[in-house]
Amino acid sequence: MRLISSKVAVWAMAAGALVALPAWADPKIGIVDAQRLLEESPQGKAVQESMRAEFAPRQRTLQAQEQTLKAKFEKLQKDGATMTEDQRQKAEKDLREGQRDFERAKGEFQDDISARRNEEMSRLQRTLGEEVRNYAKANNYDMVFSTEGIVYAAQTYDITPGVLAAMQAHGGGSAAKPAGTPSASPTPAPAKPSK
Questions:
Q1: What CATH number has the domain bearing residue 65?
Q2: Distance CA 69, CA 76 (A)
Q3: Does the pLDDT of residue 62 top 80, yes or no?
Q4: Band of residue 20 on the pLDDT scale cut at 50, 70, 90
Q5: Distance between CA 123 and CA 27 in Å, rounded?
Q6: What pLDDT band is residue 80 in, cutting at 50, 70 and 90?
């Protein structure tokens, strides 16, 4: 009987210790808006501008090609009745071939821009993850969650502005500092929410 009561006492103390754990181990939790970091960080803006500059010439070429096709179609519509049968067939054939070339070029453009965007976004997400980890370590956060999986969180948990400020302090370059490199001047953490 004494053996059973001593086991119950041990279990009761262990359960009491587990219940008391949150009282002395108050975790510091932060929430970060990854989409906002992608859009507003200097690194994200640099990627967007780089992509725009890289693909703008091809986009202008496609737009010019589309305008040329439109003009050929309108000319065929307007002058088709007065053309000879051979002229009309040749114009229709040219229009079909031009449309086919345009659609192929447009598809290749979309594929290229999509592949490049995926490549750059993957690189940028790694950079942003590194920045968030550095910020969290520098400001003693126990856990940082992305807003994508959070239904609700008080604004005081949002560390996105602090991470953005740290990223802006590092400059607009697309490369993050190597892992484990401490931040030169960590941005002060938001106030810990009171319970």
A1: 3.30.910.20
A2: 10
A3: yes
A4: very low
A5: 30
A6: confident
